[in-house]
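Retry 2 of 3 after timeout on previous attempt. Resubmitting structure tokens to design endpoint.
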């Protein structure tokens, strides 16, 4: 599937950045997947919601695991003003 949406300003929580640093992974690795429509570890319902959100201008949520097994989320806001990398417990 080919998707296209603006990520807006990129932000991340300190805990998410620490998890990425600990796993020796770059935020860009996960942002690239998110921006290309690879929603990661979301269920079929969330996958459908994300695909619709790209067209309808709603919030987009991707979920991934680092090489260390730490879960991270990436959320692009409905207005496409910002995209945040965070840990699920920070939501």
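Retry 2 succeeded. Sequence:
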């Amino acid at each position: 599937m080919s998707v296209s949406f603006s990520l807006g300003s990129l932000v991340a929580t300190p805990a998410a950045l620490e998890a990425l640093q600990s796993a020796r992974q770059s935020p860009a690795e996960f942002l690239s997947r998110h921006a290309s429509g690879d929603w990661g570890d979301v269920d079929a319902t969330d996958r459908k919601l994300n695909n619709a959100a790209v067209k309808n201008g709603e919030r987009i949520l991707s979920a991934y695991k680092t090489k260390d097994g730490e879960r991270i989320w990436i959320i692009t806001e409905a207005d496409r003003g910002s995209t945040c990398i965070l840990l699920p417990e920070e939501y």
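Attempt log closed. The chain has a mean pLDDT of 96.
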